[in-house]
Amino acid sequence: MIPDKKIQIVIVGGGAAGIELARKLGARYGRKRHDIILIDRNRTHIWKPLLHEVATGSLDASLDEVGYRSHCHRWGYRYLYGTLQGIDRAARRVHIAPVFDPKGREVVGAHSVRYDYLVLAYGSVTNDFGTPGVAENCLFLDSRVQADGFRDQLLDHCLRVSRAMSADPGSDARVRIAIVGGGATGVELAAELYNAADALGYYGLEVFDRQRMDVTLLEAGPRILPALPDRLADAAREELEALGVKVRAGVAVTASTPLGMETKDDGFVPADLQVWAAGVKAAHIRDGLDGLELSRAGQVIVRPTLQSLADPHVFAMGDCASCTPEGADRPIPPRAQAAHQMADTVFANLGRLMANRPLKNFEYKDHGSLVSLSRYSTVGSLMGKLVGGRMAVEGRLARFVYMSLYRMHLLAVHGKIRGPALIIVSHINRFVRPRLKLH
After folding, report:
1. What pLDDT score does 142 carry?
2. pLDDT at position 2 over 50
3. How many alpha carbons lie under 13 Å from residue 97 in its C-beta half-sphere?
4. d(CA 322, CA 364)
5. CB distance 439 to 46 below 8 Å
6. Burial, 329: exposed, middle or buried (Cβ in 10 Å; 0-12, 13-18, 19+)?
7. Which stretches within 267-362 are classed as H helix?
8. pTM for the complete prediction?
9. Structural contact between residues 408 and 340, judged by C-beta atoms closer than 8 angstroms
10. Considering only CA atoms, which of 273, 282, 285 is closest in space to residue 147?
11. Which of 9-13, 46-50, 221-225, 336-340 has the highest mean pLDDT?
12. Distance of alpha carbon 318 from its chain centroid, rounded?
């Protein structure tokens, strides 16, 4: 007698939503009658909101990342290393692109994977809006590889300036950095750069300090941090300017050159390092998604149940999903808290779908926005019944809540036993490991 096939659930993308869903499905259903498969183009997971700390060396990703292979072994799902190339909804298969080593040799050939239910969670990338020169001259912070590349270039420029000052104490050598985008990523990176500059003196660059770092933050809108109330955005701007950041709002970048940024007002911002952090769009899938309806930003448009419009067997969640709540004017913003909540809903609805029960609608609960200015300050707004709506928070309380978000992610990824242990270890590491990762 031929045994029945296992119910195969394929998750594409191991970001915050994908890895949380894989853990919950694996823990709930195991391997006996289900085959839970997570596909990702990286071998490890790092929480995306921390990439600005990886980029400056404030966070050692090697200690905080999660290896998919060990994680899947612990939680009862399978991990496949690869990049989504396209899907075939009629045959219910996902097509995976071939994998090559650094020398161009094929490691794993192109192949396809069967699914009964498919969850798309492949995330987003930075949107350069077709601005001339950005793709060639700017750095992005969409992955750990990009964050590591930024850190290496930053350290090289700091070393160059330090050597120039050692050779000529009167030298005016500087590290010039231009950041485009006054949202959370751009603001947090700008502040974290000064934390890194302060720490470099402990590690051999005795003549280098924050005075040698010129950081310009460019924002096309009227002010930075549009998601926060005016008062908090103004407080963040004052904090950045006190550090030394030149905050220029209402300045649109028209082009990037090897020497710096050209702006709409015919100005020019010279820069040794250029970072583009203005806007996001769904990651590009080479062969498309076989007729799934997409938004202008390339996101999969979903029903309230987070199923795609065209196919009830295909779900989408996280940054690659466009979900507009009933009565709302615009889709839910691409935030970590939205991804976390979507993973819970998809987990519940997959169980309901397999049991032929009615599905539930996704209800987004906006818990507010928080922005960390490194060790200097944290500002934000919280929303909830306990405070009667919106509450502005700053200082230690905001910092505590900001760190709690990452702790919640650790619990969602590692469970109620291993998660708290890792939180304790992270506190210990703050005292025993170097302030900066310099390699």
Report:
1. 94
2. no
3. 14
4. 13
5. no
6. exposed
7. 336-354
8. 0.89
9. yes
10. 273
11. 9-13
12. 11
Q: Quote the percentage of the chain above a pLDDT of 90.
A: 61
DSSP, residue by residue, 101-161: -TTS-EEE--EEEE-SEEEE---EEE--TT-TTHHHH-B--SSHHHHHHHHHHHHHHHHHH
d(CA 321, CA 316): 5
Residues 80-93 have a mean pLDDT of 97
Contact predicate 119/29, CB 8 Å:
no
pLDDT (average), residues 241-268: 94
**How far is Cα 88 from Cα 95, in angstroms, rounded to an integer?**
8
Assign 335 a pLDDT band (cuts: 50, 70, 90): confident
Q: What average pLDDT is seen over the chain? A: 88
CB half-sphere exposure, 58, CA atoms < 13 A:
20
How many whole angstroms separate alpha carbon 338 and alpha carbon 334?
7
| Residues 72/211, Cβ–Cβ less than 8 Å | no
CA distances from 256 to 263, 268, 274, 374 (A): 9, 10, 8, 27
Q: Find residue 118's DSSP bridge partners.
A: 10, 314
Domains of the chain, CATH where assigned = 7-127+281-355 (3.50.50.60), 144-278 (3.50.50.60)
Dig out the tokens for 32 from the structure.
Answer: 């006996």
Tens of pLDDT along 409-423? 888 888 888 878 877
| Sign (positive or negative) of CA dihedral 177, 180, 184, 187 | positive
- At 172 the pLDDT is 86
Place of tokens 């097509």: 95
**Residue bearing tokens 């230690």:** 396
Give the residues across from 248 on adjacent strands. 218
Residues 6+ apart with CB under 8 A from 120: 12, 13, 289, 300, 308, 314, 315, 316, 317, 320, 321
- Our CA angle for 124, 220, 318, nearest 5°, is 20
Average pLDDT over residues 140-146: 94
